[in-house]
Every structure is written in C-alpha cells, then in structure tokens.
Design a protein that fits this description.
- The chain is mainly alpha-helical.
- It has one domain.
- Helices cover 73% and strands 0% of the residues.
- The chain is built from 4 helices and no strands.
- Helix 3 (23-38) crosses helix 4.
- The protein starts with a helix and ends with a helix.
- The mean pLDDT is 85.
Length: 67
C-alpha cells in the first residue's frame, strides 16, 4: 500500500517540484530505503553497478510517460 502511494507521487510532476525532487532522486531514494528495509546488512556492501543501469532506464521510462 505504501509503495502504491509512493509511485503515485513519483509520477506527479507537481509533487516532485513542490518537494525539490527529481525523478532520479525519488527513484534512488526509494531503492535505498527498500535496500535497507528488505536486505540483511551483510548484503548492503555489494556493488550497485547493475542498479545504476536499471535506474537510468527507469528514469527515462518514467520521464517519457509523464510528458
């Protein structure tokens, strides 16, 4: 339920502007929060290289869908 609310706000340009957020920042913050919530501490040290590529793809997809 909380994830639905987050994604609804993330796709709202007015919400992002009012909170001085970019789509990239919102997606990366969401990822980092979920990483802390879901993964055990021992897995936090692994590289996020694959995430960087995926996050760029998500930013492009979301950007094109809200414009």
């Amino acid at each position: 339920m909380q994830d639905e609310a987050f994604f609804k706000d993330m796709l709202n340009p007015l919400y992002l502007m009012n909170n001085n957020l970019t789509i990239r920042t919102a997606i990366n913050d969401y990822y980092n929060c979920k990483k802390v919530q879901v993964l055990k501490d021992q897995y936090h040290k692994f590289s996020d290289a694959e995430w960087e590529e995926l996050s760029e793809y998500l930013v492009q997809k979301v950007s094109s869908s809200i414009m």
